[in-house]
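Hi R.,

Quick one: here's the Gluconate transporter sequence you asked about.
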Amino acid sequence: MAFLIVVLCILVLIVLVTLARFNAFLAFLIVSALAGWWLGMPVTKITASLQKGIGDTMGGLLIIITLGAMLGKLVAESGAARCIAGSLIRLFGTRYIQWALLIAGFIIGIPLYYGVGFVLLVPLIFSVVYQYKLPAVYIGLPTLAALSITHGFLPPHPSPVALVTQFHADMGLTLIYGLVVAIPALLVAGPLFARYLKKMPAEPSSLFQTTDNEPAKMPGAANSFITALLPVLLLVLMTGLQHLTSEGTEMHSFLVFAGDAPVVMLFCLLVATFSLGVFQGRPIKAVMAIYSEAVKDIVMVMLIIAGAGALKQVLADSGVSEQIAVAMRSWHIPVLVLGWLMAAVIRACIGSATVAGITAAGMMAPLVTAGQVDPNLMVLSVGAGSLMFSHVNDAGFWMFREYFNISIKNTLLSWSVMETIVGIMGLLGVLALNILITG
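And here's the predicted structure, written out as tokens:
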């Protein structure tokens, strides 16, 4: 009966978000309260459970997501992102321009929030398309695939960070595993798949044309690359050094502190404040204004994650999460596949990768806590499932259609198939990595 109530709650959530057009945060709060009531929780404890879920979830995420958004906004506003793309295009030349844009999308996608990266990259894609008279979808889709993969697999993006917190995974190790899984997924969903889309017609709307930054105001290439990639480099470096030192030593303790994601992000943001801001002639007040705008961009994302945390806590406090975990153990489906499947189904129904990932994580957390699976791989498995089959209920689907000015049929054949390939390749990569790790 408890399992049916949970299914009903997810259906109510889907109806509120899709048909009733409710704000996702409000929908989560309503469903969380209903879930507590239907599952027999004392009404006096439901509110406390909601508050605890929101507090516990956001306590570990607020610093990382906020600092990550600030860094990404500065990378975009300073012209560093365009400098990275331009440098790669010059390096690879016209023959391999698709690869140049793909790598640019991957590098730019690491610090940039998904929506910002999308809006920033599309005019760049079309400027290359017009300059070299190339097929837009063939050139652009691999770049956006790279952006999608960083959004689903790699910290400091909100969804992977939230999953790391829920599963008590290691941020640095998850990032390393994520990079390993991301590369084959990107190659198949990007250049390999795009080869079949060369003849797909697309024309950009003039609405999406943007002006370039003045060259004099743009940072140098080395500065741009180092600042954008610094969080990844430091997280990977600190994780590696921690494994080379003995636990209990002062050096190990320092590396644990220095490699903690909030500390890394704060350090990287301070570096960027000067390297992309003050040293480029931008007043500190102007840099802080950029940071304020960045927070506005991600407020709703954080609220949605908070709402998902409230639902997770209600399911935990009512005991139903443990009941579901016990029931799942008899399904004879590998835990990694089960997490992927849950996220994929919710993604197809709701459309939001973040909501799908966090909701599925709430169901899978007891199995991870019980030690049945590597939590770092579970983050990637759920993340891969949350990217599956983007269609008409996903904002990304419509952004791609409108920016590239193609039919719904062709959007399904290009964008939706690409996202599905990313999800499937992500799962295959996680399963292969699990075999290597477990022997």
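The chain has one domain: 2-438.

Cheers,
M.
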